[in-house]
Amino acid sequence: MNTLPMDWTHTDDGHDLLIKVPAITPSFWIIKILSTTVGETAADFLAVDAGWGQNTTRLVMAGLLAAALITQVRTRRYTPWSYWLTMVLVSIVGTQITDLLTDDLGVSLSASTPAFAIALTGIFIAWHHSEHTLSIHDIVSRRRELFYWAAILCTFSLGTAAGDLATEALGMEFSNGVLIFGALIAATYISFALGGNAVLTFWIGYILTRPFGASLGDLLTQARIDGGMGMGTMWTSALFLSVIVLLVAVESYVVGSHRSEQ
User: Fold this and answer.
1) Which pLDDT value is given to residue 169?
2) 125 in any annotated domain
3) Does 94 map to a domain?
4) Which is the most buried residue in 71, 101, 115, 246, by most CB within 10 A?
5) Which structural domain, as residue segments, surrounds residue 119?
6) What mean pLDDT is reported for the chain?
7) What gap in Å lies between CA 202 and CA 22, rounded to an integer?
8) Backbone angles phi, psi at 9, to 5 degrees
9) What pLDDT was estimated at residue 6?
10) How many domains are there within the chain?
11) Please, are residues 24 and 206 in contact by the beta-carbon 8 Å criterion?
12) Long-range contacts of 11-20 (CB under 8 A, 24+ apart)
């Protein structure tokens, strides 16, 4: 029996290829939720508290994302710092896309939410038609990785729009948003544990982490009079980024140690 290293996969045509994305572990979901929250708080901090303004913040973040994405796509194998840097920037830009449509262009959330859902469905259809799989365990080529990042960006925009729509339509407080979206994520995990489709439950859970992280970010940053905890965007962003850096450093060490033993 052929035993492959942790970041390799064996394809049907007999080729062993390097996987470009991390394994789905508890650490993966923790960093994902933290990066999602940072996407909400960091953009607000730069645009408002740091005085950059929305347009400058969008241009800078889009430029940084393009540079990070090029670096990520050009790597040969999963590299934690490159992957998670790209993820944080995708989170910020995905949030900004929804905010641009809503705040600057006047597109209602009831229109942008289904539009993003249709766009994401289109990406999945094109991805499956081209590659015959939507599994993130098979991200082993540049084309698959580009489909993957396109889907990731769309999930952030969709999650932002859907979360804001639910908050406005239902009038949920931030704490209720955390509880409701957390419960939906838990239900999705239970469905997976009971034998639900792994690919479907993964992407549902992935989308739900966006409004969950946004609700958590609002709960922490907003003033107490508005139902938040009053930590502010700067301290919340700094705290979450520090935890992300720590977890990614640990993951880099583990991955490096594993590879050195092979």
Assistant:
1) 66
2) yes
3) yes
4) 101
5) 18-260
6) 84
7) 14
8) -135, 150
9) 41
10) 1
11) no
12) 11/140, 17/140, 17/141, 18/76, 18/77, 18/78, 18/140, 19/77, 19/78, 19/137, 19/138, 19/139, 19/140, 20/72, 20/75, 20/77, 20/78, 20/83, 20/139, 20/140, 20/145
In a domain, 5, yes or no: no
The phi-psi region of residue 203 (left if phi > 0; otherwise alpha if psi is between -120 and 50; otherwise beta) is: alpha
In a domain, 105, yes or no: yes
* Distances from the Cα of 261 to the Cα of 3, 6, 76, 172, 237, angstroms: 14, 11, 19, 50, 36
Residues recorded for the chain: 262
d(CA 9, CA 16): 6
pLDDT tens-digit readout, 121-158: 999 999 999 998 888 888 888 899 999 999 999 999 99
User: How many C-alpha atoms does 200 have within 13 Å on its Cβ side?
Assistant: 8
Q: How far is it, in rounded angstroms, from Cα 161 to Cα 108? A: 9
- Residue 175 to residue 178: CA distance in whole angstroms: 5
